């Protein structure tokens, strides 16, 4: 194995959180290294148009926005390394990271911005139509389906929230659930059932997303009698949860039951001094580019102050 390469600050992840942390750390003369992860640019690379990020009055594509953030980080001296961390050794200082390509890096402070991945059903048609009507974020993409019918899959609080949010701009929301009862909180269930614009399809699973170039409908199958039905919709929203990309930190950093990293209130500090978590890997509530960027800024400032105290 190669000799470790040392940096003051390493940032894992290259979404809005990671690159914002890099901009702040670089401007503080910390010469950060960003290890991009297996999806450089993060979840926004799968988003066609971003219209709710401040500073882009005409909107911007996700990939263009991430290119600009990367360029801004590099302008101040950030080094970007295209690889993914597969091992993290946080039990002693300096912290030690091994990437997929076999290189070893050490650092004094570590900012974890590895994000979270939306759960998908795993259907070939679903993957083929991602960003062509298939999405996992109503807040991000709901506006594109104004005055149209859409479908939401799920039965928890997130699905209820997404469905209710979509009724503000869509003519009808088809809520598809594989069981005969929701697992959401009672108040969220009641709000959903009381909403005239939401039609619940109980005991149904999605067999296929229909459409050649964009979503035109969904084919659902009954879990009771296998009856098949096609529902015409223009948008298909997944609301079956996210998986935080925190696996390599298990047993080292505090996590909740779902695997989200736990930070100290009002900060980005984890249970290990010098290790910070920002963005969706520590946020199961908001999951927006702007909130991820905000916590990336916080993490860089937290790391800078902590490093200054060590000198």
From TrEMBL:
Ranges where the FAD/NAD(P)-binding domain occurs: 8-296
Name of the protein in its database record: Thioredoxin reductase
Species assigned in the record: Plesiocystis pacifica SIR-1
Oligomer status and interactors: Homodimer.
Listed GO biological process terms: removal of superoxide radicals
Gene3D superfamilies: FAD/NAD(P)-binding domain
Cofactor: FAD
Catalytic reaction equation(s): [thioredoxin]-dithiol + NADP(+) = [thioredoxin]-disulfide + NADPH + H(+)
EC number: 1.8.1.9
């Amino acid at each position: 194995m190669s000799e470790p390469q040392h940096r003051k600050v390493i940032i894992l992840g290259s979404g809005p959180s990671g690159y914002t942390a890099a901009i702040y750390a670089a401007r503080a003369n910390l010469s950060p290294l960003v290890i991009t992860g297996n999806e450089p640019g993060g979840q926004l690379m799968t988003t066609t148009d971003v219209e709710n990020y401040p500073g882009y009055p005409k909107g911007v594509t996700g990939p263009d926005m991430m290119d600009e953030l990367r360029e801004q980080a590099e302008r101040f001296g950030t080094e970007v390394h295209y690889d993914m961390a597969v091992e993290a050794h946080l039990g002693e200082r300096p912290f030690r990271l091994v990437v997929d390509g076999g290189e070893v890096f050490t650092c004094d402070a570590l900012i974890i911005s590895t994000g979270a991945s939306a759960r998908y059903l795993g259907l070939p048609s679903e993957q083929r139509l991602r960003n062509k009507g298939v999405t996992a974020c109503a807040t991000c993409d709901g506006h594109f389906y104004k005055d149209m019918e859409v479908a939401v899959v799920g039965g928890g609080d997130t699905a209820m929230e997404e469905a209710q949010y979509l009724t503000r701009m869509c003519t009808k929301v088809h809520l598809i659930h594989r069981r005969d009862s929701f697992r959401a909180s009672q108040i969220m269930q009641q709000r959903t059932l009381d909403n005239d614009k939401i039609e619940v399809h109980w005991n149904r699973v999605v067999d296929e997303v229909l459409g050649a170039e964009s979503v035109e409908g969904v084919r659902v199958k009954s879990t009771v009698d296998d009856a098949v039905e096609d529902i015409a919709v223009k948008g298909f929203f997944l609301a079956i949860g996210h998986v935080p990309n925190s696996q390599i930190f298990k047993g080292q950093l505090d996590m909740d039951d779902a695997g989200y990293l736990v930070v100290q209130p009002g900060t980005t500090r984890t249970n290990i001094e010098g290790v910070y978590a920002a963005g969706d890997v520590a946020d199961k509530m908001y999951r927006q580019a702007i909130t991820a960027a905000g916590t990336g800024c916080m993490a860089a400032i937290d790391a800078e102050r902590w490093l200054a105290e060590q000198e």
